Amino acid sequence: MAGVVIIGGGYGGLACAVRLGKLGHDVTLVEASGTLGGALDSVSRDGYTWEAGPQSLLVPAVVRDLFRKSGRPLGSELGLEGDDGLVPLDVIREHRFVDTSVLRLPSGSRRGQIEAFDELGAGLGASWDAYVSDFDEVWDLLRRHYFEEPWQRDSLPTDVARLLGSRDVLHKHLRRVFRDDRLATVAGHTFVADGHDLRNVPVWAGVVSYLEQLFGAWTLPGGLHRLRDLLVARLETRGVRVLLDTPVSDVVVRNGKAVAVRTAHGQEIDADAVVCAVDARRLPALAPYVARTMPAMPPVVTHLGLNGDVPDLGHEVVVHGDPLIIIRPGGQAPEGRTAWTLIGRGKLAEDMLLVLARAGIDVRQRVETRVDRSPVDLVSAWGSSPYGVRWQGRGTVKQRLGPTTPVAGVYAAGANATPGAGLAYVGLGAALVATEIGPA
Ligand SMILES: Cc1cc2nc3c(=O)[nH]c(=O)nc-3n(C[C@H](O)[C@H](O)[C@H](O)COP(=O)(O)OP(=O)(O)OC[C@H]3O[C@@H](n4cnc5c(N)ncnc54)[C@H](O)[C@@H]3O)c2cc1C
After folding, report:
1. Sheet holding 241-243: strands in order across?
2. 207-214 and 181-193 helices cross at what angle (nearest 10)?
3. The dihedral formed by the CA atoms of 295, 18, 405 and 150, expressed in degrees to the nearest 10
4. Strands (E), 332-378
5. CA 17–ligand 1 middle distance (angstroms)
6. Which residue's alpha carbon is nearest to atom 52 within ligand 1?
7. What pTM did the predictor assign?
8. CB neighbourhood size of 245 (10 A)
9. Hey, which residues does 248 pair with through a beta bridge?
10. Domain range spanning residue 375?
11. How high is the mean pLDDT of the chain?
């Protein structure tokens, strides 16, 4: 038996590797760069450490399930008794609107969200609640037939096919259901932040607001990149062979079935099954099947090391406008200092610090260290976009790969195989691939 070869050691590839290792497969994880984790990583300089990518996650059951099903529970790995180490956020993010009004969106609380919107304007709580509650059935349907059950493009249950095939897009829907633009801004925010155009995002994808309200957002003290360290340790427990600095250039297909992957060094690694946890457009054997997809491009990211007094901002602050700037103040810093990450989208014609100063958050005199990473830097660091495939309407669901692909023996995982970026969806996708491949 040649075993399973996984292409890409980001969160998607790591999650597949530990799950398949536990199922008894002989697993080889092939990673182009010198480190594992992809965007699930940290950036360090001058005593500061920032999250390179994820800072919080939704649907914590997904990561709990990953650790349980691949070995020991998360809490045991962290040396905790009766606790899994994940910490729920009180407030998912603070939205600062162009008109200077502010909404602090509570995490995991329907009542809290209604009250927060009512504070923004009388009656807005009911309006928000009606929007979010509409996704109750959507989640129930998709969870059973799409997120938690390997799905086949051409044999979806009728109600799922109807939902996924709907032409309704979020942009129009939000204009229709909200008379206050700020609610539409909040509902569309995660998509705009992830590099999508709301005119091309199907309405059902808005289920993310429901997930934020129902399950909340969660962090891990010390940073989510610790999950990467735990998964890397688990690779060893599960006997996964890891090849670093080994870019895969293609999948070798013979008689219609994948038999190996070819590396950029010209080596062929035999495989009974291949998991593509990278952008399939980069692999010639798979590229024709994803020719109509485009990546959702990463944002501009600036990590800041700040000294002295800076505003105390909570977990995440979104400064709306064009450009859109997200402040994530949760990095680790030396005593008396603060580590922020800025994420920018839109018209970034000037420095994000200047835009923030104009919005009343002026830390220009406080900067002692900064690391700027452009979208190009990020794509070249990770070989593709960790935000996966850009929404281009309802067709995108069938135009991207995963969990199966048209090539026998090839499966797809990672952000490119799921309906949007985020560890929750990527984690669910890895579970689907493990279910499809099954025990050795
Ligand atoms: C700035 C930023 C903030 C984010 N914030 C959040 C957040 O708060 N919450 C959340 O849930 N999600 C967040 N995300 C999204 C999250 O990081 C991604 O959904 C997730 O990490 C994607 O994992 P992945 O394995 O699909 O891809 P990646 O992390 O991109 O990993 C792909 C891996 O494959 C390797 N690779 C690429 N090509 C090849 C090849 N040809 N051969 C071998 N290896 C290859 C790369 O080197 C990389 O290691 C954020 C992302 C970014 C960039």
Report:
1. 241-243, 27-30, 4-7, 273-276, 410-412
2. 90
3. -100
4. 337-345, 367-373
5. 15
6. 53
7. 0.97
8. 13
9. 263
10. 300-380
11. 96
User: Does residue 165 share a domain with residue 186?
Assistant: yes
Distance CA 185, CA 187 (A): 6
How much of the chain exceeds pLDDT 90, in percent? 95
Q: Is the residue at 64 inside a domain?
A: no
Ligand 1 pocket test, pick from 384, 389, 410, 432 with the greatest ligand atom count within 8 Å of Cβ, gives 384
Handedness of CA 299, 305, 310, 311 (dihedral sign): positive
Contact 334, 48 (CB under 8 A): yes
- 9 close to ligand 1 (CB < 6 Angstrom): yes
Same domain, yes or no: 406 and 282: yes
Please, which pLDDT band fits residue 277 given cuts at 50, 70 and 90?
A: very high
The sheet with strand 87-88 has its strands ordered as: 57-58, 217-219, 87-88
Mean pLDDT value of segment 28-32: 98
Amino acid letter, residue 218: W
Residues 6+ apart with CB under 8 A from 95: 102, 103, 104, 105, 182, 185, 186, 189, 318, 320
Same domain, 124 and 203: yes
Helical H segments across 194-305, by residue range = 207-214, 225-237
Across the chain, how many H-helices and E-strands are there?
15, 20
Give the pLDDT band (50/70/90) at residue 1: low
pLDDT of residue 81: 76
User: What confidence tens digit (pLDDT) does each residue in 72-130 have?
Assistant: 999 988 888 778 899 999 999 999 999 999 999 999 999 999 999 999 999 999 999 99
As a whole number, mean pLDDT of residues 250-256 equals: 97
Give residue 154's pLDDT: 84
192 and 132 within one domain? yes
84 falls within a domain: no
CA–centroid distance, residue 424 to ligand 1 (Å): 13
Burial 266-305 (b: 16+ CB within 10 A, else e): eeebebbbbbbbbbbbbbebbeebbeebebbbbbbbbbbb
Q: Report residue 211 CA to chain centroid gap.
A: 14
In 3D space, the residue among 363, 358, 379 whose CA is nearest the CA of residue 329 turns out to be 363
Output the CA–CA distances (angstroms, integers) from residue 53 to 32, 112, 179, 396, in the order listed.
Answer: 18, 28, 34, 24
* Residue 328, strand partner residues: 341
**252 and 188 in a common domain:** no
Rounded distance from Cα 102 to ligand 1 centre (Å): 31
Q: Which of 11, 244, 286, 341 to mutate to test the pocket of ligand 1 (most atoms within 8 A of CB)?
A: 11
Q: What is the DSSP string of 93-129?
A: EEEE-TTS-EEEEESS-HHHHHHHHHHHSTTHHHHHH
From residue 96, give the alpha-carbon distance in Å to each of 198, 311, 318, 321, 364: 20, 14, 6, 9, 20
